[in-house]
Amino acid sequence: MTAHEISPFIVEKISLICEGYSLSKIFEMINYNISGGKNVRFDILSHVTNNSKLCVLEEDKFLVGFCMELFHASFILSDDIVDNSLIRRNKPCFHLSRKMKALRDSRFLISLIHKLLKTLKNNSNKLRKIIDKCFYDTCLGQAIDTKHKERDEYTFKMYKTICELKTSSYSVYMPLACGYILGDRDCPYYLEQLTNLIGLIYQMNDDYLNFFPEKTNKTSNDLDEYKLTYFTAKLNEENTNEKEVQSFFNKKGVSEYIKKWIFSYFEKYQVEKKMFVEESRKMIQKEDENDLLFLYNILKRYELN
């Protein structure tokens, strides 16, 4: 079973929480937006709880894992509206049928998370505190990511900040921290530093995969949208006086010249990604290896085959 599958006990909890509302429409919306994902957060959570000496109840693990999928679904709902995306997980984006009502659905999913976590007997407040922190981080990261940027903002420093807030916080830190809480264990003191670096690697890889839509089944194009990515940061910092480059950062189109420059960074991307992987591995202390080396199995899932 995965967190994408709504277990009967979770169906029962949601039915009680949402009593008096159209349950069929609620479950239709939830199923549409959590199905087809990669299950990454639940896999991380499950791995950490399985390593715990404390016997973590399966129902508690699946409930928290399910809440993480609701968290992710909430953000991709709003993301797809902002990006005007058409395809998500091999099917039409939800907002295409729901229009702006999808924003309300997004907020509903976040409120449902808190309602569900309150039903836990142990550590409910600690878990909700982590969720709130990651929600704030992700909102802030997305705000920085989507705002209009002048050329001097296309820097690796700014890119790294976005990765830490928008990607690392809820995709890596949240499932790890919640896993430690469920297992009644303290998080490693360096956990946020490590997850920030893992999230950076993850996002760099995502930026690279954006050039291969036939592999990712996504319709958004980072270059056409002038997004700050690993590659546009490189373009800005290493080509300061090129007229074609200035034209790109003035949002006047993506020329073949720009594409050529961007593609020339692919080799450097591979080198730097490997460097960051090695740097992150050195952070992990021996007593934490059983919990944290699993993260590199997760990263390998996103390698382009």
Automatic annotation (TrEMBL):
Q: Which UniProt keywords apply?
A: Magnesium, Metal-binding, Transferase
InterPro entries associated with the record? FPS1-like, Isoprenoid_synthase_dom_sf, Polyprenyl_synt, Polyprenyl_synt_CS
**Pfam families in the cross-refs:** polyprenyl_synt
Q: Which residues cross the membrane?
A: none
Any single GO CC term annotated in Swiss-Prot or TrEMBL for this entry: cytoplasm
Respond yes or no to whether keyword DNA-binding is given for this record. no
Q: According to its UniProt record, which protein family does this protein belong to?
A: Belongs to the FPP/GGPP synthase family.
| Official protein name in the record | Farnesyl pyrophosphate synthetase
Question: Which organism does this sequence originate in?
Answer: Vairimorpha ceranae (strain BRL01) (Microsporidian parasite)
